[in-house]
Structure formats: C-alpha cells, structure tokens
Amino acid sequence: FKPVFSTGISTEQYEMLIFNRWGEIMFESNNIYIGWDGSYGVEGLDCPSGTYTYKIKLTLNGGLQEQVIVTGHVNLLR
Question: How far is CA 4 from CA 21, 33, 45, 52, 75, in A?
Fold first, then answer.
C-alpha cells in the first residue's frame, strides 16, 4: 500500500502510519516512496488478513506550508 500524490507535496515532512484494530503500529515510514507490504516487526512477519487504519501526515508545498492529515482504511487480503 503506497499512496500516490500529485505535485505539491513536500517529501521532507511526511509520515505514514498503519495501525491494527487495537491501535498498535504495524508500519511506519517517513519516506514518501516507501509503502507497506503487509508485514510488521523487525522480522517482517506477515500481518493477518483484515482491515487496517492508515494515518498520513504531509505538508503541502506552497506559500503557507500547510500540514494535512489524511486517515482511512486499507483491506489486506492474503
């Protein structure tokens, strides 16, 4: 899972978090070019199928440098 953005997004102030249904962080990235492959932990264990919540913080390039938070759900199928 990797969101696709059009132009106007700062690559320096970006954060994507993926949570399970209990609110535990399954994945975290500060790189806009790295997405979630459905794994968690240092060992890269597979997450079970289910619905996960994502939270993305990003900064819009422009005169105001406005910070935006986008949330939603992603379904993982195995």
Answer: 24, 9, 25, 18, 17
Least Cα distance to 70 among 61, 51, 57, 52 occurs for: 57
pLDDT in tens, 34-44: 999 999 988 99
pTM: 0.88
**Reduced 3-state DSSP string for the chain:** CCCCCCCCECCCCCEEEEECCCCCEEEEECCCCCCCCCEECCCCEECCCEEEEEEEEEEECCCCCCEEEEEEEEEECC
With tokens 């978090």, the residue in question is 17
